[in-house]
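Write out the 3D structure for:
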Amino acid sequence: MHGVESPLPRNAASRTIPPRMKNSLIACGAALLGLNAAAVYFPEQNLTLAAHTASAAIGMVLVFLAIRPQPKQKTESAPPAKPATPPPRAEAEIVAFLALLQEHGRLVDFAKEDIAAASDAQIGSAARVVHAGCRKVLDEYFEINPLQNSPEGSALTLESGYDAPAFRLLGSVPENPPYKGKLLHPGWIAQSVKLPRVTGTTEKRPWPVLAPAEVEVSGN
């Protein structure tokens, strides 16, 4: 046996009744119950007519509340996926500079190569290529000057308050300055730096390429 279908929309029962509408339905239902009880226990013609009229009005209100479309509740949409965070600019520029050392001096190739079995002549030949290329890059992107202008082997005295990070003390070092000794290496200091611009990166590969893969293409 088929059940009687409700005249209300099929999804009306699945909708959550807002608190205000719920209170209105309860109040109308209570009023309707009271009017019908009054018509039963006080069967006067005028009172019965008034009860039926009020009941009809309340019924219309109930039908209106039931079929009125409810405002759509706002649903929180998921936040858009964040793109990959690019590396810090300083670190990326260092990688780009290392790529220049590889391009002009094959520095990465030389450092990553296992030279244990290579002869001194082979290492010396490769070192010439690395030296020439790396020197070219250093001269182009750095202004480098000696930290000390005195010649190597000259006497040097470091008084109290000297620039400690600019010197490495070797040998028998007393507890407190002055330190007296001879200059073994003048040191180097960068006066200016011009790091290369970072280019050629993608969302999936945010770091610059140190050396592109080389492919020899054969004819078709």
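The radius of gyration is 45 Å.
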